Amino acid sequence: MNWGETFEFLWKSTGFANMTWGNVAMIAIACFFLFLGIKKKFEPLLLVGIAFGMLISNLPVDGITSTPLYHPEWWTVQEVDYVNVLQHGGLIDILYIGVKTSVYPCLIFLGVGAMTDFEPMLSNPKSLILGAAAQFGIYVAFFLAVCFGFTGPEAASIGIVGGADGPTAIWLTKSLAPHLLAAIAIAAYSYMALIPVIQPPLMKLMTTKKERAIVMKPTRKVTKSEKILFPIVVIIATCLFLPSVAPLLGCLMLGNLLKESGVTARLSDTAQNAMMNIVTILLSVSVGATAHFSTFLTAETLKIVALGLLAFVFATIGGLAIGKLLCWLSKGKINPLIGSAGVSAVPMAARVSNTMGLKERPGNYLLMHAMGPNVAGVIGSAVAAGFLMAVFS
Amino acid sequence: MGIGTGEISILDALIISAVGIVIVFAVLVILMGIIMLMGLIADKSPAIAAKLPKLPKFSFGKKKEKATESVGADADAEPAPGTCGELLLVRTEERDAAMIMAIVADTLGTPLNELRFKSIKRVDGQESPTVEKAEE
Fold first, then answer.
1. At B130, phi and psi to the nearest 5?
2. Does A252 lie in the same domain as A184?
3. pLDDT tens track for B47-104
4. A139 vs B103: CB contact, 8 Å cut-off?
């Protein structure tokens, strides 16, 4: 036995011998995101999984004694060879099938639907206008991305970050620009966590002290029948206009129907808890693993991060601008602060509106009023994503 | 439209952005109209139901007697749906009660699980219910 060759072979099979600067950089970035998720509590339920997926897919392997967990080159082609993936793929490759086939984002929407109470929106239908206005950021970012030299599908995927809706962003990006998926998902979730930092200065800048202190009247009571009819009506109405949005909105509304019908409590409970948690783990790890250094450490990632921030800023501005318009039209009955909640990060954006209202006038609780535009924003961003999918797919 | 995967000009991007935001507004405004219509029907339906001729209600055995007894009871003391454990809700919706409890906890700066609410009662002439007792 040649001990020298054996030890050389053993050394070459270790991660140390196969380490590149790209691996080191990505491991450092993954550890930084783990720090943000665990210590700073930035969307920890998702960021911890994303960062860990990023970490394990960037650990170096020799390709002989061990195979990579994820093969980025298999997923950026036009037609994915699923037989090859199932026969030779690593763990993350297998998990990633759920992202590529849209199963995870849609199941997340099913859980979100089961957890969402649309009553604030149903009791004040004007909320839908604010939910639409906050999608302004998507189109501004899309336009700017084209100006920065991105292709149409790439720009559409970057723009959807402004919808502040992780599953929607993943759903659109995996179809239009899968090579940008990790950067876009990380930008979307990071900025969602930063909403309490991004929005308040804009809210102060765009509203007067008097407007922020407006106390809104309680809204009307919504009947049980309306709550049950709502998901059925929404899915029929929206899918007649935009059939491409059916998978996302269909699951969102199914989840809500399970909750509101009152006869499927067990299913609603599973959708809200067990299923949601399982899919969150699978989605976050597989999306994080797509952040391979070969596709992540590029100048494009920095551009996406910058454009994502602009998308959030313009989404907030759009919501506030229409909020001010509604305030003026209603002769001061609507507090424009609820406009910024149209950015569909539920319930973070609504909480920010509530906090700003309370700061201006103690006892001015805007939470229930802001939840209307907040949940309308979820529908708005799904419609915007459906439109971009129809244009570029 | 189906533009495909190629590069697009700035003018195309501008047009897509404008059309996109118009479509989002159009779909959500239509939804708003539908929701308003549903609300209108829901609001009018009790009035319509009241106008319809009332059918005699069938009752079984002692339940009828119990129902007539409860009419004479003090309405204020009757617990509302949602009354749970030692918390008594009087003419208060569950949703309002949850909101009030959250507000009290926030105002006092005390976590909700460290507060004891004994009763929440809607007082005549006031739009919002009042909390009778909240202890830490």
1. -120, 145
2. yes
3. 777 777 666 655 554 444 444 444 444 445 555 655 666 678 887 888 888 888 888 8
4. no
Domain that holds residue A34: 3-61+84-96
Burial of A62 per CB tally in 10 Å (0-12, 13-18, 19+): middle
Given its phi and psi angles, is residue B13 left (phi above 0), alpha (psi -120 to 50 degrees) or beta? alpha
Residue written as token pair 């509590």? A41
Sign, Cα dihedral of A98, A101, A102, A103: negative
Q: Which of A123, A126, A153 sits opposite B32 (nearest CB)?
A: A126
The answer to whether residues A51 and A127 belong to one domain is no
Which range of residues forms the domain containing residue B82?
76-135
Residues A91 and A138 in one domain: no
Let me know if residue B69 belongs to a domain. no
**d(C-alpha A248, C-alpha A233), whole Å:** 15
Q: What ipTM does this complex have?
A: 0.85
Phi, psi of A280 (to 5 degrees): -60, -40
Record: contact B21-A135, CB cut-off 8 A? yes
Give chain A's domain count: 2
- For the CA atoms of A379, A179, A46, A118, the dihedral, rounded to the nearest 10 degrees, stands at 0
Please tell me which residue of chain B has the smallest CA distance to A380: B24
A230:B27 CB<8 A: no
Show which of A72, A96, A120 is a domain's final residue.
Answer: A96
Q: Which of A316, A42, A296 is nearest to A164 (CA)?
A: A316
Start-to-end CA distance of chain B, whole Å, equals 62
Work out the burial of residue B99: count CB atoms within 10 Å of its CB; fewer than 13 is exposed, 13-18 middle, 19 or more buried. middle
